[in-house]
User: What shape does this take?
Amino acid sequence: MALQACYLPAPLSARKEGKVTNAVKETAFLGASVFEHHKSGLHVPVLRSKRGVNASVGVVKAQTTAVAAPGLNQASLQGKKVLRKGVVVITGASSGLGLATAKALAETGKWHVIMACRDFLKAEKAAQSAGMAKESYTVMHLDLASLDSVRQFVHNFRQSERPLDVLVCNAAIYRPTARTPTYTANGYEMSVGVNHLGHFLLANLLLEDLKKSDYPSRRLIILGSITGNTNTLAGNVPPKAGLGDLRGLAGGLNGRNSSAMIDGGDFDGAKAYKDSKICNMLTMQEFHRRFHEETGITFASLYPGCIATTGLFREHIPLFRLLFPPFQRFITKGFVSEEESGRRLAQRSVKQQAHSIVVGILQVVSDPSLAKSGVYWSWNKDSASFENQLSQEASDTAKARKLWEPFDAFSSAV
Ligand code: NDP
Ligand code: PMR
Assistant: This one.
């Protein structure tokens, strides 16, 4: 019970005494699930001994790139060359940015891409039609709308005995026209459930695997967005993101005995997406504060630019889908096309790939110059990367900590 009680904002748990038990049951789910996972035999020692012997992935060529930032681990500090491909897990790699990134990384010949997708066939077809070489990727099932599926994915990934060098939390859904909430298998509002909670559990579980990697620069990348940052023009387009005191999240986001919205307000599909993006950006920073020094892992988020033609807008009204790309291209000038990024990427010259979002994410995934941890990256018109400022709420340490409370309780229970 202490587990859930500490997840409730203090004033709320006092005020809603009568409802705490229910809220507790729901919010406990996440923490308890992780606990069960560890009890169920997927524990670290077994994996460690197996992996130590068998963790070989296709050998390519020595990567001699100097990694100057804190992402260095023992292997690189001792001057060893890494003689294997990096292994990167990308969630939602069946379309849009995830697919473009998977393709770009696979084409470097230096990465094996695990495409973590909810629709196996769609992902396989997408990889094939993107022309990805068969041996450069593996599709593995992951439905972020189910915490069991997240745990199963982690289990399957570990069974594969591959190391994990980079995790890219990219998948997302956006439901701007939804009038009523839908829910994940665990009863959480869908946008936050998939975009934040599913990734939150995945990242926390896979942290163990990242820690064990001998790759010179290990990274955990989470996609943020300008629309979750109220310190920008785009972030001030209504409905504005806002987590309030997180009372809805504390109550379980279930729409029955709590609101389906994090701030406890009425359901709004567009706001739920933007809220989830604040959570993504807060999560990255809290990971950095908690684990960077101890592990050397780089934790970062990024705003990739406005890729106005991706499947993300599939549920928006047709007029929006018609006008949004020219609006972004000619008015805000924030537009980045998937085609353009793909074409430029094929040129294989970072300099020629100006404005390419894929280059952006490629750099964040693999470029030594972007190994700094705790950073929210953006790119300017000349495709130069810079550390962007997060809004006050998206850098609120108290709220970031609150997102973690079930896991804190979990750790102390182990
Ligand atoms: P897409 O819709 O093209 O891609 C989203 C991916 O997420 C798809 O592969 C989708 O799978 C997957 N996905 C959705 N639900 C689940 C689930 N339950 N489990 C597993 N995978 C799931 O969108 P984008 O490429 O545009 O978005 C990628 C990221 O970039 C998102 O995090 C988004 O927030 C971020 N971003 C995008 C911007 C843009 O302008 N497009 C701007 C700022 C940030 P399926 O193919 O099966 O539907
Ligand atoms: Mg925006 C420089 C201004 C700018 C930028 C970079 C974006 C990006 N948008 C800007 C401005 C505006 N938008 C303005 C002035 C308006 C009012 C006309 C506007 C509207 C608007 C809508 C209705 N914009 C949107 C929507 C969406 O539904 C998109 C959204 O919020 O998705 C969550 C969106 C976006 N605008 C962007 C970007 C990147 C998006 C997609 C955000 C994302 O995927 O996270």
About this structure: The first strand starts at residue 86 and ends at 91.
